[in-house]
Amino acid sequence: MTARADHRLGVLLMTYGSPANDLSDLADYLAAVRGGRPASDELVAEFQRRYELIGGSPLIPITREQAAAVADELARRGVDAVATVGMRFSSPSIAGGLRELAGLGSTVVSAVVMSPQHSQLLMGGYQRALDLAVAELGGAAPLVHLAPAWWSEPDFVGAVADRIREGLQGLPAGAPVLLTAHSLPRRVADTEPGYLDQLRATAEAVAAASGLPAERWWFCWQSAGHEPGEWMTPDFADLIPQLRGAGHEAVLVAPIQFLADHLEVLYDVDIGAREQAERAGMRFARIESLNTAPRFIRALAGVAIAAADRTPASIA
Question: Is 211 left (phi over 0), alpha (psi -120 to 50) or beta?
């Protein structure tokens, strides 16, 4: 498929966002993520500690780099395209991103949520933000196509598998691999069986592409939140000591949902999971984030091209 020659394709990569590097807006950011509910002083202080430990989140700069790389890949394929970013809970906003693309002459926009799996309950806010942005632009708004879940995109699966094979090279033969997704409250997960199916199917596809036998990998959860109630299990904090007890001397953590370095990778995995492994007496490694890996960028370009052919609608 190629984008129509009579349209300049715009690509809008959308993700959560992050607070400013000086953390001056951290309380506002956490409130936005929490649906407008202010975070306690204790929670704000804890997140300030975490962001300071990692030197601030690089998510927005990396997403900009991803957008630029996607535009270059589309140009290589002969597609007239421009690309930018839009954050759901911080600046630069989704509305600002769509306005930017319209100003650059885009008449058709492929909007891509930077999560390969989709839950309408968890991610429907992206569609609502796009609808509001289109309404604000009025007659100047481009035609917006929202990409559906794209976890099965071969180059995405292959890119993660490439990272796993690279990550295993420095570990003992037979080291186990933990394929992780962002944890959910159990009450939310119970209403989203299709989303859970996508996550598990992603893990199975990645494991198969990596050549991992069934006894060598586990699907598990990470980054459980601070809300009360039961969260999904097993968490990697539960599995790591079990793996050590079974005789494993090293472990590789491979997020299958996170596409760039950010807090849930640089703190939750690199600091939290590493501490778990070291306390259990295990060597620890994490796969390199996809960021702007060429194979991953090819996947995103393919998603954007395919979305341009869709009838504008909510993600399915």
Answer: left
State the Rg of the chain over Cα. Answer: 20
Rounded to two decimals, what is the model's pTM?
A: 0.95
CA-CA distance, 303 to 277, in Å (whole number)? Answer: 36
Instruction: Give the DSSP per-residue string, the chain.
Output: ----TTS-EEEEEEE-----TT-TTHHHHHHHHTTTPPPPHHHHHHHHHHHHHHTS--HHHHHHHHHHHHHHHHHHTT--EEEEEEESSSSSBHHHHHHHHHHTT-SEEEEEES-SS--HHHHHHHHHHHHHHHHHHGGGPPEEEE----TT-HHHHHHHHHHHHHHHTTS-TT--EEEEEE--BHHHHTT-HHHHHHHHHHHHHHHHHHT--GGGEEEEEE---SSSS-B-S-BHHHHHHHHHHTT--EEEEEESS--S-SHHHHTIIIIIIHHHHHHTT-EEEEPPP-TT-HHHHHHHHHHHHHHHTSPS----
Residue 6 clears pLDDT 70, i.e. is over it: no
4 falls within a domain: no
**Do residue 259 and residue 300 come from a single domain?**
no
Task: Place 308 in a pLDDT band, splitting at 50, 70 and 90.
Answer: very high
Residue 314 lies in a domain: no
Other beta carbons less than 10 A from residue 294's beta carbon: 12
Question: Is the bond leading into 234 cis (omega within 30 degrees of zero)?
Answer: yes
Cα 164 to Cα 196: distance, rounded to the nearest angstrom: 22
Cα dihedral 32, 33, 38, 40 sign:
negative
Tens digits of residue pLDDT in 241-253: 999 999 999 999 9
In a domain, 180, yes or no: yes
pLDDT digits (tens, 9 = 90+) for 176-189: 999 999 999 999 99
Asked if 69 and 297 count as a contact pair (C-beta separation under 8 A), the reply is yes
Residues 138 and 176 in one domain: no
**Structure confidence at residue 146 (pLDDT):** 96
